Amino acid sequence: MHLIVDHHPEGMLVTDDRGTVEVASAADFPAYVAQREQSADPPRWVWSDTALWYPPLLRSGVRVERCHDLRLVEAILAGVEGRPVRPFADRTRSVVASSGGRQETALFDLDDAPRRADNAPPAAALHAEQVAALARGSDAAPGSLALLAAAESAGALAAVEMTSTGLPWSADDHERLLLEALGPRPEAGRRPDRLAALASEIEQALGARPGALPLDSPPELMKSLRAAGIDVATTRSWELQKHSHPAIAPLLRYKSLSRLMTANGWNWLDEWVRDGRFRPTFVPGGVVTGRWASDGGGALQLPRQVRSAVRADEGWVLVVADAAQLEPRILAALSRDEAMARAGAGVDLYQGIVDSGAVASREQAKLGMLGAMYGGTTGQSALVLPRLQRVFPQAIRFVEEAARAGERGETVRTRLGRTSPSPGEAWRERQLLAATEGASEAERRDSRTAARSQGRFTRNFVVQGTAAEWALAWMAGVRRRLWRAEGAPLHRQPHLVFFLHDELMVHAPRERAEDVEDALRAAAADAGRVIFGRAPVTFPVTVATVERYSEAK
DNA sequence: ATTCAGCGCGCC
DNA sequence: AGGGCGCGCTGAAT
User: Which CATH number does A329-465 carry?
Assistant: First the structure.
């Protein structure tokens, strides 16, 4: 049963599968949805944009089990041959998302109600079109696109719920950590003690006058380093590490601490943590590959340095689960490489590769696989690639073919049918130009570089994008297993609080920890079957029940 | 005064 | 000369 919701001068227009039309006033809408959710077979809500429609419902205490997000599905379908791109599908950041999750509106009133963009078609018409397109599918396996649409939409619900409950965050612990690393919080515009001390240490080592060293300006700093005889082309830390000048060690320390302060220091804490919660906005489908992005607070780049501040409430725990070596397993399943599947039979696929005799060490296995999936052509990874190719020819051929397709300017698809973006007019023109007779050596070289770059992108797209699909299926399964439509509000029962590409975190009352662990494992096993059918590849997850995020792994 | 690209670094 | 991101900062462009 679908219920399509749309805007109406007097409130919300609701259309069901039989064409019955009702209008609910904006004020009554949450109660209307709540009542429908109580039925034995709750509907799938069809709406323009989950990030617009769902937050007001959640604020009224109403959860929704299933939905169809027209905007996200439109973006997926935009990659299907011959379908015109709807303007509103281009918007990857919703109006609500741009507020950074900082606003809190109490109720669902008319002014607050989501409005359809002028250029968006009516929801019912667009839904009918999308359902037909999903059923036709792409050249991927039949049914895959519909599955992808459902998984993407489930993710959209989870994303809004995670923002609404927030990630448990101890501001006290965070401040303690900053005090220990940097010293007391300085006045605005001044360096904390620890950074000031390091700055003078660096100045001394370089023979610079106090305050004369532009430590926070890479181009200026580079000039100063070169003037002091440290021959660097950039000020990247890995470049600096190669030199053994006495200024290097304190400089690296300075950069690391300075980074902590600017990215996750006191200002960050002021801006992003309220009432013991960090509330980033998650942006499903925010990355071309289908990965999520985030908006505000750098949620997907939380440095390990501050993860000890992620702390469960009293009497609660964090259940943290991580899919072990997800991407190589995805590649094994995509390519149906049985030898690689066997290597992944245990929890550690890289060790399995060592045991297969392909390479000598776990580190080599990891480097080699990453190189194969990213298109690395230098160093250790390139060195072991031929060995991997001999033992896992099918897997390596799979990524090579994706790369060749990209180099030819073609698009590639994930397992469920998400399409990579086309390389664009400028890219094509450059390729054509380089292929003409009068093309210069430089033009040919540039076009070759651009082609290889596109090849690395498509090579990675199939793996990263399919891994994102597996993760969505996993998350949807976890959410379904934790689901309780009635009873306690979301924040009083186990709920997802964080998602990081191949990692999920659930905040749960301590006595529910075992249930949650089971749910995380069971959903992972399901996800493999949902995406790949009866492939021999396993997707083990490591699960840890902890009080602080830093204790996991 | 404001916008923007590039750098550098955090995460996967 | 390895894929995908977000963000703070700087310095040049507007």
Answer: 1.10.150
Q: What's the whole-model pTM score?
A: 0.93
Residues of chain A with pLDDT under 70: 82, 84-121, 139-142, 485-487
Nucleotides of C under 7 A from a protein CB: 1-11
Measured CA A493 to C1' B9 distance, in angstroms: 37
Q: Which CATH architecture has domain A171-270?
A: Up-down Bundle (1.20)
Residue A186: CB less than 7 A from any atom in strand C: no
Q: Where are the domains of chain A?
A: 1-165, 171-270, 329-465
What confidence tens digit (pLDDT) does each residue in A347-382 have?
999 999 999 999 999 999 999 999 999 998 888 888
Q: Is the CB of A383 under 7 A from strand C?
A: no
Which residue type occupies A262? T
Task: State the architecture of A1-165 in CATH terms.
Answer: 2-Layer Sandwich (3.30)
> What's the pLDDT at A293?
92
Tally of residues, chain A:
553
* Cβ A449 to strand C below 7 Å: yes
**Helix pair angle (A193-206, A171-182), 10° resolution:** 30
How far, in Å, CA of A7 to CA of A193, rounded? 56
Q: Rounded distance, CA A165 to CA A182, Å? A: 31
For residue A375, give the 3-state DSSP assignment: coil
Cβ of A218 near strand B (distance < 7 A): yes
Tokens for A335? 């390519």
Q: How far is residue A553's CA from residue A541's CA, in Å, rounded to a whole number?
A: 12
Q: Nucleic chain B: which protein residues 278-307 of A have CB below 7 A from it?
A: 298, 300-305
Strand B footprint nucleotides (protein C-beta < 7 Å): 7-12
A378 beta carbon to strand C: under 7 Å: yes
